[in-house]
Amino acid sequence: MIKSLxxxxxxSLFFVGTYGSAQEADVALARFNEADSxxxxxxxxxxxxxxxxxKLPTFExxxxxxxxxxxDQDNAISxxxxxxxxxxxxxxxxxxxxxxxxxxxxxxxxxxxxxxxxGEGVGDLVAFDENGEEVxxxxxxxxxxxxxxxxxx
Amino acid sequence: xYRDYRDKGVQxxxxxKAVEHPEINxxxxxxxxxxxxxxxxxxxxxxxxxIPWICDxxxxxxxNAFGGAPNGGFILDPQGKVVRKRFWANPQALRSDxxxxxxxxxxxxxxxxxxxxxxxxxxxxxSGVVPRLQLPGRMRPLDIQHVPDDDNPFxxxxxxxxxxxxxNTGKGNLYFGVYLDPLYKVHWNNRAGKxxxxxxxxxxxxxxxxxxxxxxxxxxxxxxxxxFLIEATFKDQxxxxxxxxxxxxxxxxxxxxxxxxxxxxxxxxxxxxxxxxPGIFLNEMFANVRDMDTNGDGDLTTDELPPGxxxxxxGHMDYNANNVIEKSEIDRxxxxxxxxxxxxxxxDGRRGQx
Lengths: 153, 354
Prior knowledge:
- The complex is a heterodimer of chains A (153) and B (354).
- Helices cover 48% and strands 12% of the residues of chain A.
- By secondary structure, chain A is mostly helical.
- The longest helix of chain A is centred in the N-terminal third of the chain and has 18 residues, at 2-19.
- Chain A is rod-shaped.
- Chain B folds into three domains: 2-113, Glutaredoxin (3-Layer(aba) Sandwich), CATH 3.40.30; 140-270, Immunoglobulin-like, CATH 2.60.40; 282-346, Orthogonal Bundle (Recoverin, domain 1).
- Chain B contains eight helices and 17 strands.
- In chain B, the strands form four sheets. In chain B, strands 5, 6, 7, 8, 9, 10, 11, 12, 13, 14 and 15 form an eleven-stranded antiparallel sheet that branches. Chain B has a two-stranded parallel sheet with strand order 1-2.
- Chain B is globular, with a radius of gyration of 22 Å.
- Residues 338-354 of chain B have low confidence and may be disordered.
- The chains are: A mainly alpha (153), B alpha+beta (354).
- Chains A and B meet through helix 7, strand 3 and strand 5 of A and strand 1, helix 2, strand 2, helix 3 and strand 3 of B.
């Protein structure tokens, strides 16, 4: 959950930082030039990866991003392809829905907050054994005790 | 696990709590400790279990003290403090906990080492002959108290449920279900009379009808529940609606037939210790279980189960705990779950009952 949150925040900063202004195209070109360390007018995958890692440290789907951007499949990102990174990242983030939490795990998580908490006792309790004789829960002390609740249905 | 750890300083107990989903295998909620103890005796025989039982009090003190989970699992340390807790007990997780707390066991007991579950002879009385009412969704049981009858057991038991609107506003649908208790092995005598429910109120409840009578049944005898649904308005949740239930039953051995009238007090508040009818929750969850077998091999693997609910299905149906729900396990589950309840999508042609 925390990871997803960081991911979303980083993603949002990425968008805002990159395209928040009216001069979107100019900014994109400036970013491209910033990333193009050898100034050859094209980003090698290494250059592009360094750029993405610097701007979006929690982004883990670099290969998918390249797959989306590198339309001509030349293993390099042109300025035109670079311009589409915003939408590509946005789409990848939107699709990266976290695996749903198991139904039972969700209940267990809530149940941990309910009394008795781990480390607590349950106080005085008297019930019955299977013959109808009284059972004092205090008499269970002295051993580890496994209690399994249920009924016939 | 009991066999594996009982000699290693661990004691095990099943805790019998209030019936969670009445109607599964035809069981209905016991009204007193004696009936709860009969359920325990039945379960011990049915499952051939050696694990001792603790029976909760009728006011459900133990269940409530442990957080009210329907199938909770706990480990207490020797000082009586909770060291592990789960909303749904899970055998694999329990073993893992015990390995951590106590240590691993060399020769783990296998399912095939355990005695075979006992299967009772099916009864020969008709069931599934009385159409079920289509009930509104999300109904919850009302608080209901019986007036003890010194002469007769409660062969049939009344269950009363309300719609969320009833609990929120006082006005809504009120469901009355009259269920035969399989503990007494009796059936309705349809030649002797219908089931009648007379409702009395001192102005605290406004009812659409005050006398409810079951419909004609063609068969001489059957074991199906009798159901009624009316509109009601509770003006005061603390004053009871009084119900007199009159019915005629005969025992399966045909040694007696008897007409009884028994009294209940019904309050317009929810009883959270009583679970929902399986039709409300489990029915929805398991209705299409056979359709989930996308590759058609008869088994259900975890990738065929709905995301987020894998452990729920595995927990309910994977009897041999191998993480695959085999066809035999689906059959076993459907048979158990459909037992006499008439849920069509589960119906694999076996509507027997215990």
